[in-house]
Amino acid sequence: MRQELLSLPKGLAEEVSRNLVMVARLIDEDPEQAYAYSRIALRLASRVAAVREAAGFAAYATQKYSEALAEFRAAKRMTGSVELWPVMADCERGLGRPERALSMAGEPEVQKLDKAGQVEMRLVAAGARRDMGELDAAIVTLQSPELASNAVHPWTARLRYAYADALLAAGREDEAREWFAKTLEADKDGATDASDRLAEIDGVEFVDAAVLDEDEDADVDDLGDEDDEDEDAAEVAAAERAADQTEYYDEDDEEYEPVDGPDADVDLTDEIVVVEYEDREARDKA
Q1: Which terminus of the chain faces fewer neighbouring Cβ atoms within 10 Å, N or C?
Q2: What are the Acidic residues biased-composition ranges (predicted)?
Q3: Vertex 14: Cα angle to 10 and 19 (nearest 5)
Q4: What distance in Å separates the CA atoms of residue 227 and residue 154, rounded to the nearest whole number?
């Protein structure tokens, strides 16, 4: 890319370079913003193959497949390279033309691809088969020496994952589980969600820690409410006992003496029981 930019005036080359750097930085986390930067670079230097390629990938990331395909074709014409062939075929899939993608998988360009490109083309072809409802054919398409190899390459995890996913879609759960496990072995960077798929097959459910915290907070609040209710109930009961005592004694009675001070907490029921017991003992002696 640097060599291509050297063909531009220095100031223009620096401006285009800055926009291409932003495309590379944002294409995964903010594809729409990356696409905006790619349009600026394209407007400044549309005759640079690297710019057309970057614009194609930015459009692809935002699912603008027709635009992406046009940019990839332009870059291919400028360079004569076939390395974009798999992603061009995938654009055909995105446009709802899986038959065209399959046709591209059989073109001579595929033989010119390196090993990574050929594996990528196989993935696209299998995806096209699935688009057409041909699950068994998709599984067969993915079966290859690269899949059977124990060696781990940058594309190994994706190939195994696609195979496991196709097996699961075909109802072959045991085999799918085996290949999701093999995917996990090769996926050192966590590029796939193979661990989640394995857990799903095994019936394991993960609970979000944030949800647990919210539930615990809710339990604490509920406990606090229960404590408040208990305190309210105790206060009501005390008020009712006080009301009963007030009704039992007549304040106009000369013998009525309200209990004040520390003796206010004396349980009058205990006194009544003692009196009754003494009267019964006196009667028994008589």
Answers
A1: C
A2: 215-234, 247-270
A3: 150
A4: 59
**From first to last of its 286 residues, what are the pLDDT tens digits of the chain?**
677 777 788 899 999 999 999 999 999 999 999 999 999 999 999 999 999 999 999 999 999 999 999 999 999 999 999 999 999 999 999 999 999 999 999 999 999 999 999 999 999 999 999 999 999 999 999 999 999 999 999 999 999 999 999 999 999 999 999 999 999 999 988 999 999 999 999 988 766 655 556 666 656 566 556 666 666 666 656 655 554 544 433 444 444 444 444 444 444 444 434 444 444 444 444 4
Q: Which residues contact 113 (CB under 8 A, 6 or more apart)?
A: 82, 83, 85, 86, 120, 121
150 half-sphere exposure, CB direction, 13 A CA radius: 0
Buried b / exposed e along 183-205 (16+ C-beta atoms within 10 A): bbebbeeeebebbebbeebeeee
Task: Output the six-digit token pair for 19.
Answer: 């926009």
Task: Give the predicted TM-score (pTM) of the model.
Answer: 0.70
User: Average pLDDT, whole number, for the chain?
Assistant: 83
Other CB atoms closer than 10 Å to residue 15's CB: what's the count? 16
Burial label for 4, CB within 10 Å (0-12, 13-18, 19+), is middle
Neighbours of 131 (CB within 10 A): 16
Helix orientation angle between 31-44 and 49-61, rounded to the nearest 10 degrees: 150
3-state SS track over 57-112: HHHHHCCCHHHHHHHHHHHHHHHCCCCCHHHHHHHHHHCCCHHHHHHHHCCHHHHH
User: Are 22 and 8 in contact, with CB atoms under 8 Å apart?
Assistant: no
